[in-house]
Amino acid sequence: MESVQKPHRFLIVLCCVALGCGACSPGSTSGSPSAAGSSGVSTTPQQEPRIKAVASVYPIAWLIDQIGGEKVEASVLTPQGAEPWGYTYSEADLGALNGADVLFYVAGFQPSLDAAVGQLSAPSVNLEESAKLVHHRGLASNHGDESSEAGRQLDPYFWQDPVRFSLVAEEISQSLTNMDPENSSLYAQNLAQLKTALEGLDTEFSQGLSQCASHAVVSYRAAYAYLTDRYHLNQVAVRGIDPSIDPTQKDLRMVKLGIAEGRPKAIFDEAGKSNPVMTDLAGQTGTQLASLDTITSEPAMADYLAAMRANLESLRGGLGCV
């Protein structure tokens, strides 16, 4: 596991009041009366400091929130709706880390962030050991020459596999425990509950996708290879993860071939979006148009678990599962 790169201690400030002396409360001066009453001792309890954790992307922030609970304040570095792999972080974006206690990220698919990590004042935890990013077909160059370096881009969507996602949760829990050992039992308890929820999600997917008429997951973006690998399906993507690279006519011919061979009932656009190429493909191939959520950003009116279950229902309908 990648350790925190810069040490950090959390200081609990204790206000010690000697018998017979004046109040010692925030904002008071020596010998002045406390606003809490004539006794001079404030009745307002000291709030225990919270770890301020920043995650590079929403799914990591969701794990931090589930494990850290009230002891950790989690936020997301990448703006809502932005594609993190192609996003260039500005000084203002990175400035949000100035007051942070730790940054959680996965190296290897965000060049802008990878380049900035060494210059940041906040400690950082690289989760690449547990995320175990791999190369999947056609991510950078769509269906082009995968012998080239462009076709060897790491697939960042590790959270689409609940089993792999659970391993990342374990590393986050260990990192929080190392930073804040006094609350280790809380982090361990929350991790156990989270792992139970992710194991249940894995079971739902395993059972829900075990008997399907089609195994071809035809999607707009190549965001589901970890999922299709886990549950013995085949991903057929119109485009890779880079939004700047448009699909070629060769790419579209390959997708149509995949539809003809896999015979899915539906193909999958991105949730909340309408890409004309998917509408055209559905019309040309006689398939229905459904949607899947990449869960790159926080889902509208939901969280990770709800978005994954919505994806499962969409897959079951589109693949004709019973």
Automatic annotation (TrEMBL):
* Annotated GO biological process: metal ion transport
Q: Which UniProt keywords apply?
A: Signal, Transport
InterPro entries (alphabetical): Bact_metal-bind_prot9, ZnuA-like
A Pfam family that the UniProt record links to this protein: ZnuA
Matching entries from PROSITE patterns are given as:
PROKAR_LIPOPROTEIN
Chain ranges passing through the membrane: none
Output the Gene Ontology terms for molecular function. Answer: metal ion binding
Which PANTHER family does the protein's record reference? Answer: HIGH-AFFINITY ZINC UPTAKE SYSTEM PROTEIN ZNUA, HIGH-AFFINITY ZINC UPTAKE SYSTEM PROTEIN ZNUA-RELATED
Record-stated family: Belongs to the bacterial solute-binding protein 9 family.
Task: State what protein this is by name.
Answer: Zinc transport system substrate-binding protein
Native organism is Actinobaculum massiliense ACS-171-V-Col2
Lineage start: Bacteria, Bacillati, Actinomycetota, Actinomycetes, Actinomycetales
